[in-house]
Amino acid sequence: MTGLLAIGLLLGVSMLIGVYGVRAARSTPDFLVASREIKPGWNALAIAGEYVSAASVLGLAGLMLKHGIGTLWYAVGFTAGYVAVAALVAGPMRRSGAYTVPDFADYRLGSQTIRKLCAVILLVIMWLYLIPQFKGAGVVLHLVSGTPYWVGVVLAGLVVSVSILAGGMRSATYVQGFHYLVKLVFIAVPALVLLATAGSEVRAEAFHVDLTAWSRPLLDLDNSGQPLLATWSVLIATTLGAAGLPHVIMRFTTTQSARAARRVAVWVIVLLGLFYLFPAVYGLLGRVFTPELATTGDTDTVTVVLPAVALPGTWGAVLTALVAAGAFAAFLSTSSGLLLALAGGLSHDLSRTGATDVRRLRLAVAAGALVAVLLSLPAAAVDINVLVGWAFAVAASTFCPLLVLGIWWRGLTVAGAAAGLAAGVCASTGAALASVAVDAPHGWLTVLLAQPAAWTVPLAFTVMYGVSRLGTPPEWAERAVLRLHTPDAADRPLR
C-alpha cells in the first residue's frame, strides 16, 4: 500500500506539472522545441531524466544479477555516448535549425524521400524504446499492489499522453527535470541505506555460487564464450546509439544556441555518471539476497524486490515504496521524450511538406501511445535491456552515420544516405529478429545476432560513404556544411 501511495502521488504531481505548460503550446515550434527557450540547466536535467530509463533503473541491476559485473559496461556506454554527442552532433544540429532528425536530413540533402525514410526509422526506434518503458510500469505496479500487468501499462500510457498533450516539449521538460531528481533521490537513498544496514551480511563466500561471473571484467551474454566481442558490440551500440537517438537529438534543438547545446551535453555526462553509481548496488546486493531471481527469470524486478528482502519490516516497505516511485519516474520521463519524438515523426516528418499544426501533433501523441501500449501488453516476458539494446543498435546503425557524415563531410549524397540507412536498419532489425527466431549455437554468432552493432554500424558507414563516392553531392552541399560549423549561425536558425 505504501508503494501504491508513492506512485499515486508521483503520477498526480507529474500530471499537474505537465498541465502547467499547456498555455505555451500554441504552435509547432512551441510543441516540438519549446520555441528554443529552454535554459541549459533545465535541459540537462530533462535529458538526464528522459535518458535514465527502465533499462537503467531495472534492467541494469537485473543484468548484473544475471551476468555479473561485466554488465557495468552498459553504464559506461550509456554515459560515454554523450561525449560523442557533445563532440560531434550537439552544436551543429542546433545550428541547422531543424526540429527533428528527419528535418535535418531534409535540410542537409534536400530530399523528401530521405525525410520519409528517416521518419519510418524514427518510428521503429521509438516504439522499440517505448515498449520496455511501459513494460516496466506494468511490472512495478504489479509488484507493489498486485494489480494485473496490463493495468500499469495502460496507466503509464495514459499519464504520459496527458502530460504531453497538454504542453508538448515545455511540459515534457519540466516533468523530466522533476523526474530526474526523484529518480536520483529515491534510488540513491535506499541503496545507501541497504549498504549501511545490510552490508555487514555480505561476505565473499556469498559470491562463490558463481564466482566466475564476478571475477571477469567483460560481458559474456548467455555464456557465449565471446566476452570481448560482446563487450565491444555493447559499447558501440550504447555509445554511438546515443548520438543517433531521435528523442535525445531533438532535445538539443530546444536550446538557445549551439554553445548552450554543447554545455548541456557536458552537464548530462555529470548527471548520468552520478546516477549510474546506484543501479550497480542493487545488482550486487541482489546476488547476495535474491539469487533465486536469476533462475526464475525475474531479474528485472531485483531493484524493487531487494529492499523488503534485505531489510524486512516497516523500513523495508518504506524503501520499497521509494524505489517503486523512482522506477515509475524513470518510465514516465523517458516515455515523455519518446512519445514526443514519435508524435513528431507521425505528424510532422511524414507530412508532405513537413508542416503541421498542434492539433495533428496531439492526435499523433494519442495514436503513438495507443500503439505502444498494444505492443507492450504481450511483452511481459521480454528482458527490458534486450529491447532497449535493439533500439540503441538501430539508432547507431542508421541515424548516427547520417548525422556524423552529414555534419562533417560535404560529399554525402541522397543515394548514399538512402543506401546506408536501408542497410543499417535492415541489418540491425534483421539480426535482432533472428536472435529471437533462430536457436543459434553459443559463440560469436549468438553475440552478432543479439548485439549486432559491432558489424551493422561499420556496414552502414561503409555503404553510406561508398555509394556517396560514386555520385556527386549537390552544389550547395558545401554551404550547408559550412553553416553547421559557423559560430555566427548559432543564433540564426533556418526555421
Can you tag this structure with a few keywords?
disordered C terminus; mainly alpha; 495 residues
Provide structural commentary:
This protein is mostly helical and 495 residues long. 75% of the residues lie in helices and 0% in strands. The chain has helices spanning 2-20, 28-33, 40-51, 54-67, 72-96, 101-109, 112-145, 149-198, 212-215, 227-242, 246-252, 258-275, 279-289, 293-296, 302-310, 314-349, 358-376, 384-397, 399-408, 414-437, 444-450, 453-469, 477-484. Helix 5 (72-96) crosses helix 19, helix 8 packs across helix 16 and helix 15 (302-310) packs antiparallel against helix 16 (314-349). It is globular. It starts with a helix and ends in an 11-residue tail after the last helix. The model is unreliable at 203-209 and 489-495 (pLDDT under 50).
Task: Report mean pLDDT, rounded to a whole number.
Answer: 81
User: Could you give a short account of the major beta sheet?
Assistant: none
Rg on CA atoms, Å: 22 Å
| Overall 3D form | globular
Number of strands: 0
Specify the oligomeric state.
single chain
Amount of beta strand: under 5%
What is the helical fraction, as a range of percent? over 70%
Distance between the termini: 50 Å
Order of helices and strands: HHHHHHHHHHHHHHHHHHHHHHH
Number of helices: 23
Low-pLDDT runs: 203-209, 489-495
Query: Which structural class fits the helix and strand makeup?
Result: mainly alpha
